[in-house]
Amino acid sequence: MSEEQTDERIYTVVRNAEEQYSIWWVERDLPAGWVETGMCGTRSACLAHIDQVWTDMRPLSLRERMAGPRQA
């Protein structure tokens, strides 16, 4: 069995200011710059959630630059 299959820890989905996602152990303090999104569960459930919500892997600053100046 792989470690992922036997991992019984609970994770939380976290996001940074660039709207990049990751998972973090619930019992540990979050690293600076990361906030919880409200999704907690098994590693596989959290990763599945990230697959659903993180549809554009580009950082927010890059997406904004590529969008160009906004028209009024």
Walk me through this protein's architecture.
Strand 1 (11-16) and strand 2 (21-25) form a beta hairpin. Strands 2-1-3 form a three-stranded antiparallel sheet, with helices on one face. Helices cover 32% and strands 26% of the residues. It has three helices and three strands; from the N terminus they run αβββαα. It has helices at residues 3-6, 43-53, 60-67; strands at 11-16, 21-25, 34-41.
Question: What gyration radius follows from the Cα positions, in whole Å?
Answer: 15 Å
The coarse overall form would be elongated
Proportion of beta-strand residues: 25-35%
The assigned structural class equals alpha+beta
In total, how many beta strands?
Answer: 3
Helix content: 25-40%
Order of helices and strands: HEEEHH
By DSSP (H or I, 4+ residues per run), the number of helices equals 3
Oligomeric form:
single chain
Strand order of the largest sheet: 2-1-3
Low-confidence stretches: none
Largest sheet: 3 strands, antiparallel
Q: Average pLDDT across residues?
A: 91
Cα distance spanning the termini: 57 Å
